[in-house]
Amino acid sequence: MKQKLLPLIFLFISVFSFSQENEFYEMLRYPKVLINEDLVAYTVHFQETKNGVELEEQMNEPSINHPFNISIISKENNGLIRVDNGDSKDIIIDFSYIYKGPEEDGTTMYHFNTKDEMYSATYFLNRDFNDFLTLEFNRDKNNRMSITYTISEL
User: Fold this and answer.
1) Of the residues 1, 17, 37, 103, which has the fewest C-beta atoms closer than 10 A?
2) Averaged over 69-86, what is the pLDDT?
3) What pTM did the predictor assign?
4) For the chain, which domains are there?
5) How far apart (Å, rounded) are the C-alpha atoms in residues 107 and 58?
6) What is the per-residue pLDDT across 37-56, written as a single tens digit (0 to 9) for each?
7) Contact 121, 30 (CB under 8 A)
8) SS3 sequence of 70-115
């Protein structure tokens, strides 16, 4: 079931451009919410497009010794997502608001209104399965990278 969910996640994220997404959530009157969570991911899925060509998907080898520690810190008008695995440079994404979408099939989507349109972040909270945090980095329409962290509990 998890394998079927990943393509749907990527399809949904790629449907709208970043500025259109924010207007879309405002128009639908999705509520703005605060999330302050410390999460742990052991599995990471990478998808990259270079010069318009999608490269082969990659997934890390999960390791209890090298977890990805994810912090989501939000206030009323700002916040940040920080991803740290101790081996590489931290990923930090600033955002203004978090929009909460309606629950569908046990999944609630939270869209982060990022301050830079090159970045996108979406958190999928699943009632019955693992949660996912997807970060997208778009240099231009032909060059982008998507990273999906599978949130885990030991």
Assistant:
1) 1
2) 92
3) 0.79
4) 2-151 (2.40.128)
5) 24
6) 999 999 999 999 999 999 99
7) no
8) EEEEECCCCEEEEEECCCCCCEEEEEEEEEECCCECCEEEEEEEEC
